[in-house]
Amino acid sequence: MAVDPKHLLGAFLTLSMFGMLANMIKKDHFDSVETQLPQLSAVQFEVMKIEEHKVAKVPRVSKGPWNKVSQDLKPCWKRPGARLTEEAETSSGYVTFSLTNGPEFHIAQVADAVVVAKYLGATLVIPDIRGSKLGDKRNFADIYDTEKFVKSLEGVVKTMKEQPAEIAAGKLAVVKIPNRATEDYIAEHVEPLFRAKGNIRLVSFFPSVNMKRSETEKEADSVACLAMFGTLELQKEVTETVDSMLARLRTLSRRSDGQFVAVDLRIDILQGKGCKKSGMKGKSCYSPEEIAVFLEKIGFDRETTIYVTEPRWHESLEALKDKFPKTYTKESIVPADKKEKFLNIESLLLEKILDFHICSQSDVFVPAISGLFYANVAGRRIASGRGNILVPSQIEGFSAPAANFVSSYISKKNHMAYSCFCDQ
C-alpha cells in the first residue's frame, strides 16, 4: 500500500512538536528548581544572618569590673610546737572570756585570749557568746564548731569546754586588755594579777577599729595567726544556711556568671553621729544613693546582683534598687525554713554572722561603712585569696576605673593579715 507523503510529513511534524514540548517542560522544571532554590537559600541565609546579628547584640554576661585582684598567698607562719611547755602542763590557772557584739569582734577576742593563755601557760576556757541585749547569751556551740576549736589548739594551749566549778561560783579578777596586746603589755599588766589570783577573766577593748599592721607585726606571730585564721569555724547548721544563701545569690547572678557584690550598708549606723566627714580623708559612711552612683560609675550595669547587710528592707534602699533592680537583703535570700531562727528580731547576732560570711565570700565586697566589720572581713578575704574589695568614693565626672578604689588593705598590703599570709 502506498504511503501518502503528506501523512508522513504530518506525523514527523507532530512528533517534533511533542519532542519540543517535552524539552520545554523538562527545561522549565529544572530551570525553576535551579533559579528558585538559590533565591530561597539566599532568603534563608539573610534571615539567619539577621538572627545571628540579633543574638550577637544580646549580652550574655552583664558588664562589671569583675577582674579578680591577684591574691596568690600562702601562710608564712608555722603551727606552734605540738607539745605544751612544762609550765603549761602543770598550770592550774584559768583564763576565761566571752565573745561579744558580733563576728568581727569574735575573731579579735579569740586571738587576744589565746595569746594571753599561751604566754601565761594557763588553761583557756571555751567562751560563751553574749549579744548586745541583756540576757542574750548563747553557748559557743550554737554558732561555732567546738571540736574544731579544741583540735586547732591542741599542743598550743590547754582548753576546757566548761568553766570549772571552783571558779564558776567565785568572783574572777577582770583584766581589760587592748586588742593585739604585746608580750610586754601582758608581762606588765596581766601576768602579775594572774600569778596573784590564779584565774582571770579577759575583756578586750579596741583602741582602733582598723587592722593595719604595725612595725612590730612585720613578722608572723604564729600563735596570733593560728588564733585569728585557724580556730573559728561555723557549726553545721549555720554553715549550711550560709552556703544556701550563697547558692541563691549565684543563681540570681546568672547574667554575671554567678558573680555578685556584697555591700555592708546599715541604715542605723548611717543615721548615727559617727557617719560624718573626717577631715581631709573624706567620708566614713555612704548612703544607698551614693553607693548606687559609685557602682554605676565604676562600671557595674543594671543586671548586677547586690546583697546588702541592712537587716530589713528600708525605703532608702529604693535609690539603690532603682539603678540595680537585683538588690536584696537577707529577708529574700535566707531559706524559708530558717527564717524563724536566723531572722529573729530579738537577737541580731545570727544575722550578723550571716552577713559577715556572705561578705567574706562574695566576688566583690564594698564597705559603705568603715570600721571593724570592714577590717575583719578584709582579713578573711586576704586569707582566702579574695582581694576584690572596692572602697566607695565620690567620683567626679561620669566614670572612673574600679582599680582606683581597691582597698589600701589590699593595694598597700598593710593589713595585719599580711603578717600571716605572704607571696611565696
TrEMBL record:
User: Which keywords label this protein?
Assistant: Carbohydrate metabolism, Fucose metabolism, Glycosyltransferase, Signal, Transferase
The record ties this protein, via InterPro entries, to: FucosylTrfase_pln, GDP-Fuc_O-FucTrfase
Q: Pfam families from the xrefs?
A: O-FucT
Tell me the superkingdom of the source: Eukaryota
Instruction: Name one molecular function that GO assigns to this entry.
Output: glycosyltransferase activity
Signal sequence range: 1-22
The reply to whether Glycosyltransferase figures as a keyword in the UniProt entry is yes
Among Gene3D superfamilies, the record links this protein to:
3.40.50.11350
Q: Tell me which Gene Ontology terms the entry assigns under biological process.
A: fucose metabolic process
The family annotation for this protein states: Belongs to the glycosyltransferase GT106 family.
- Name this protein carries in UniProt: O-fucosyltransferase family protein
The source organism is Aristolochia fimbriata
The opening ranks of the lineage are: Eukaryota, Viridiplantae, Streptophyta, Embryophyta, Tracheophyta
